[in-house]
């Protein structure tokens, strides 16, 4: 069936939270200010050859100095929530593997000021505690391969929850642990740039543990806030659903990306097929008795980040392997998946080369609603990279992005129709920003940023999104 563009209803549930999202390293800049120490992304981006055009987050959107302006922008667009992340190296800049170290009040003050600014504008803060900017000192001691990183993360989470918990509606422990573990430790395309499959699986476990410890800390120190986690779940389909080998390939990648997190977080155990699939890479001896109970914490909400679909098939080992994940030649994020092939799909794509198919969004929301009954759902990220098409009026006319948002919001409505308790949607991103390994070459913002002047200009998509939010109703794109 074709992508859904005509849902049964165009109205969103009462109280639906319309938001936008960013992440600290992608927007803040000010990397040496107010006591902040380097994160793994400072190190990585300053290593030649790691980020396109040698771009770094040194200045980024200068959000650190432009918070008032940016909150005013959100208010003018009528957005009701802002999902941002806290940079760990601003809060405990001298953390070591064995001790959290002193709390940097200036770092906390920055985020407290942002929260106050948001509250005054009627915008609910949703705080991500980890969006990939690990303090470099922790990486030097092993990073996410070392369980002490998870222990320190739990302590850091308690500090932030105590400081902001009276005003923050939602705390999100981790953003996309899949990326942090596999892109950072197996594919090496994200910081810290390691290409060690066994380390990636150790990172998976310690990120799960970090989630559990942080969820517990937030519950204790911010009892009125929602506790959530954000996962980039994949919608995986077998090229030939009648082929056992293709179906098995889809099961394998579903295990590595989805169930290796959902299993322990929601059900208290790792899926046995994932442990078996990866047994040649690691014996999972980093998992200790009691970890499962720590990881499975009651959650108020799960956030889904969704961008694109994936189709796989069994690779026979003959001919050139296709790769839709861009990692065909170098190290792969897909640990123990040498015989899985990621297909280039026909049809529309974004500037990232990612295929567009909103059905994955509704499928994954419905899956979450079945797997986590009683847990609220958010779309914590969704959006597209598109080249600037600047009109004579100086405004970016991003009709492709508006269409993408429209079709994915229609998919949210489908999921709601099917019973998924989706409570809000955060467009990625509020602003054009530092797109990780792609630097500033890819623009995801609904608001254009001129990196010379730091001028912000809402694109057509922002205007459209603003009207949708105001009416709580999906509108035609024209
Ligand atoms: C998110 O990552 C991040 O949370 C955010 O910081 C980032 O800016 C944003 O998305 C845009 O990238 O490689 O063709 O198989 C998303 C990372 C994107 C990784 C989709 C896996 C699969 C498509 N994911 N990708 S493909």
UniProtKB/TrEMBL annotation:
InterPro entries: GH, GH_1_N_CS, Glyco_hydro_1, Glyco_hydro_1_AS, Glyco_hydro_1_beta-glucosidase. Belongs to the glycosyl hydrolase 1 family. It comes from Pseudokineococcus basanitobsidens. It comes from the Bacteria. This is Beta-glucosidase. Pfam families: Glyco_hydro_1 (PF00232). PANTHER family: GLYCOSYL HYDROLASE, LP05116P. Its EC number is 3.2.1.21.
